[in-house]
């Protein structure tokens, strides 16, 4: 089965189809899309979408006129993103690769990323299946850290990274890591959303780790914007 997403609101997404095993756009996608649309994007702006999944962010950037390259390690996600760009009549270059490995230095003005960020009991990351899109190790930072380290290499001076992840994954740790990579970073948007099925299934583990208490039922999502100095 496929999933078609046609959300409403200020950060309305394009008509998208997701193949089984590909992350379907959710609250975090909409929040990051809202921030993306605040950027000064035109036909001279080069955007890279790391971990594109359905291609939602790549399509949003292309609809604003940007020249967009999207990357994903999942071949099924690559096919999905290419299809969604075509479905919306937009040009997006979609590459199969691991984050920035297929990209040259200083190639873009803006990096956007909605990486896996959900903490879980296993330090081993899944290699296949839908969980690959959200499981991110015991700290929820296995991929977030790599995005923070990789983005500066592909950004031009003055370029920016827009990164969304859960408050459970350590916002301060992200800000510190980006600062250590020569970027000036801060939280530019946030939202509180009900726990989804994955977090609900991990309530006991999250409580034992001290990440939530017995009364919590909403997850904080944050968008961090970091500019290369």
TrEMBL record:
GO terms for molecular function: N-methyltransferase activity; nucleic acid binding; protein methyltransferase activity; S-adenosylmethionine-dependent methyltransferase activity. Keywords: Methyltransferase, S-adenosyl-L-methionine, Transferase. GO terms for cellular component: eRF1 methyltransferase complex. The keyword Nucleotide-binding does not apply. It comes from the Bacteria. One of its GO terms (biological process) is methylation. Pfam families: MTS. InterPro entries: DNA_methylase_N6_adenine_CS, Euk-Arch_PrmC-MTase, PrmC-related, SAM-dependent_MTases_sf, Small_mtfrase_dom. Residues 15-120 form the Methyltransferase small domain. It comes from Streptomyces silvensis. Belongs to the eukaryotic/archaeal PrmC-related family. This is Methyltransferase.
């Amino acid at each position: 089965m496929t999933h078609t997403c046609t959300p409403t609101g200020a950060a309305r997404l394009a008509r998208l189809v997701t193949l089984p095993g590909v992350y379907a756009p959710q609250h975090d996608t909409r929040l990051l899309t809202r921030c993306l649309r605040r950027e000064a994007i035109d036909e001279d702006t080069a955007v890279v979408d790391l971990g594109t999944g359905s291609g939602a962010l790549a399509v949003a950037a292309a609809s604003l006129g940007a020249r967009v390259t999207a990357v994903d390690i999942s071949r099924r996600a690559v096919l999905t993103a290419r299809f969604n760009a075509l479905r919306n009549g937009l040009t997006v270059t979609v590459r199969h690769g691991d984050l920035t490995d297929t990209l040259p230095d200083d190639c873009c003005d803006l990096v956007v990323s909605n990486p896996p960020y959900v903490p879980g009991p296993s330090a081993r990351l899944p290699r296949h299946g839908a969980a690959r899109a959200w499981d991110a190790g015991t700290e929820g930072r296995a991929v977030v850290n790599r995005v923070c380290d990789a983005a500066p290499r592909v950004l031009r001076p003055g370029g920016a990274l827009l990164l969304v992840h859960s408050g459970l994954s350590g916002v301060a740790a992200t800000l510190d890591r980006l600062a250590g990579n020569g970027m000036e970073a801060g939280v530019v948007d946030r939202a509180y959303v009900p726990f989804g099925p994955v977090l609900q299934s991990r309530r006991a583990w999250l409580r034992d780790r001290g990440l939530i208490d017995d009364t919590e039922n909403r997850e904080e999502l944050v968008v961090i914007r970091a500019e290369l100095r």
